[in-house]
From TrEMBL, chain A:
GO terms for cellular component: plasma membrane. It is a multi-pass membrane protein. This is Cytochrome o ubiquinol oxidase subunit III. Belongs to the cytochrome c oxidase subunit 3 family. PANTHER family: CYTOCHROME BO(3) UBIQUINOL OXIDASE SUBUNIT 3, CYTOCHROME C OXIDASE SUBUNIT III.
Automatic annotation (TrEMBL), chain B:
One of its GO terms (biological process) is electron transport coupled proton transport. It comes from Sulfobacillus acidophilus. This is Cytochrome C oxidase subunit IV. InterPro entries: Cyt_c_oxidase_su4_prok, Cytochrome_c_oxidase_bac_sub4. The keyword Flavoprotein does not apply.
Length: 198, 124
């Protein structure tokens, strides 16, 4: 291979490298946001007032399914990036679309769960636990929803313009965002759901 | 076929060379996405294991919580290392301060909130 530099393709342009760096800074602020919400949840977890306890309201089946969907979507976006690095536009695009479909089904399942709770009268007005729970999980869910919209735009740009320098960087930052949401969900699944039901 | 190169001493002419050898960016390109597949399988296994721990009550509650949280950290590290390409690009040295800040703020908020709540008699 006689490439002048062995930097990954997303980093070969210095301007785009700096943008990726900036995206890491955004992710750091998001860590602070989720850190706050996790703390609030940890503090209010046992304050159930007259509402349900975590044990009564969580059902692990759908949540496990959501987890598997999100883990799979994290895998498919990494495949998309892998294909993009090998200059294969179509596999990259298809993996991105698969990722956004998985993301959309995750959001659908979550909305179903939430509306099920609300129908049963368990809104976030009911107790401090439910307020903290819906805020934390809802913030993650809205991040995923935003990610799905972002992925739709990105796949249109990829389809129209191909793997340009800018599109490579966009795909890379989207992949970072998506993996970050996956990490947050792993902590949600472990700390909120698993220990809630244990 | 694999190619792995140490680019720590290749001058880019832009003044952004990484000089600390251990932190030099690493580019790992393969023909087949082996790393991604391994990462996926390991994260699936860890998730199912954590789930089984809870579903079948294999451990006493206190220990269970600790193990589940530790498993979550392992999974997070896998995601960061394999999927988020931490060691690539102009890479590690660029990310480390930001990641450190994120960890410091995040763990600071969570850790100290939990710590302060352990003083049960304080206010009430």
């Amino acid at each position: 291979m006689s490439t002048p530099t062995t930097l990954p393709k997303e980093f070969q342009d210095q301007q785009e490298s700096i943008r990726i760096m900036g995206f890491w800074v955004f992710l750091a602020t998001d860590v602070a946001l989720f850190g706050c919400l996790f703390s609030v949840y940890a503090v209010f977890r046992s304050r159930v007032a007259l509402g349900p306890t975590p044990h009564q309201i969580f059902s692990l089946g759908p949540v496990l399914l959501e987890t598997l969907i999100l883990l799979t979507s994290s895998f498919t976006i990494s495949l998309s990036l892998f294909a993009a690095r090998r200059d294969r536009l179509k596999p990259a695009l298809y993996c991105l679309i698969l990722t956004l479909l998985l993301g959309a089904s995750f959001v659908t399942l979550e909305i179903r769960e939430f509306s099920h709770d609300v129908m049963a009268g368990h809104t976030w007005h009911q107790s401090a636990f439910l307020s903290a729970f819906f805020t934390l999980v809802g913030t993650h869910g809205s991040h995923v929803t935003f990610g799905v919209v972002w992925a739709i735009m990105l796949s249109m740009q990829l389809a129209l313009r191909g793997l340009t320098v800018i599109n490579r960087r966009k795909l890379y930052t989207f992949a970072l965002y998506w993996h970050f949401l996956d990490i947050v969900w792993i902590f949600l699944f472990s700390i909120v759901y698993l220990t809630g039901i244990a | 076929m694999q190619m792995e190169r140490d680019i720590s001493h290749v001058p880019t002419g832009r003044g952004d060379e990484v000089e600390i050898h251990g932190l030099a960016p690493h580019l790992h390109m393969t023909r087949f996405p082996t790393q991604q597949i391994i990462g996926y399988l390991v994260s699936l296994l860890l998730t199912l294991f954590a789930f089984a721990l809870v579903a079948y009550h294999w451990l006493p509650l206190n220990l269970l919580v600790i193990v589940v949280v530790c498993l979550a950290f392992v999974q997070g590290a896998i995601q960061l290392g394999i999927y988020m390409h931490l060691r690539e690009g102009r890479g590690t040295l660029w990310h480390l301060p930001v990641l450190g800040l994120a960890g410091f703020v995040g763990l600071g908020i969570v850790g100290f909130s939990i710590w302060i709540m352990l003083f049960k008699s304080g206010v009430s």
